Amino acid sequence: MKNIFSLILLSICFINALFAQDFHSDMKKMSAVYNEKSFETKMKIEVKRNQSIMMTKNAHIKKNDDNYWYKIDEAEMLFNDKYSIMVSHIQQSIVISKMEKGENRYLPKSDSLLLNGMDSLMNKNTWVYQGTKNGKIHYRINNNESVIQQVDIYLSEYNYTIHQIHYDYNDELMGDDIKVSIVFSGTHINPPFDNGDFSEKQYIYQKDKTWKAKQSYQSYEVLEVE
User: Fold this and answer.
1) How far is 32 from 26, CA to CA, in rounded Å?
2) Average model confidence (pLDDT) for the chain?
3) 186: region left, alpha or beta (phi > 0 left; psi from -120 to 50 alpha)
4) pTM exceeds cut of 0.85
């Protein structure tokens, strides 16, 4: 789960700094779309090893200012200005912790996410425009010395949102043919969120200074951590 969550966050950070016919101009456009504005998107992550599907994950992400909500298969994560909430539907647990003022737990800096084989790619301006088809702009970068030897990215020519990212790992370094694809769908910029979408009260409530699970999660264990 940690690796998949990091990959999802990496994809969001990746959006901010990858590509362009005019690299710096498009970087600013993507940053505005995914970092400064509210958005909602769904993602399907598929990992293949030697042509066989190893793993498939589905994710749903909502962002409104500094509030984030993620759902990755059977886990949910909520981060608002007061609390961070981790919900495991498999373990039937809810973990709550207070957010310190100015704390930013939900989105690590790009640098920390790019260290795992990505930094060598991000430091190169060798993204090659592959063409535009069906409203999708295609860019590619190759680097045979990196863990990720090829990345293909497809984005909308209308609003610069991401449609697909494909990672092709280095066979020699990995020992196998590893490919990861992330397909984005249902992407909306500045969508109308409900008032409770980023509230901890959708999961828990406080009684006698103790956190309790709401009725729909009454079988879940609630844990409060410092």
Assistant:
1) 10
2) 79
3) left
4) no
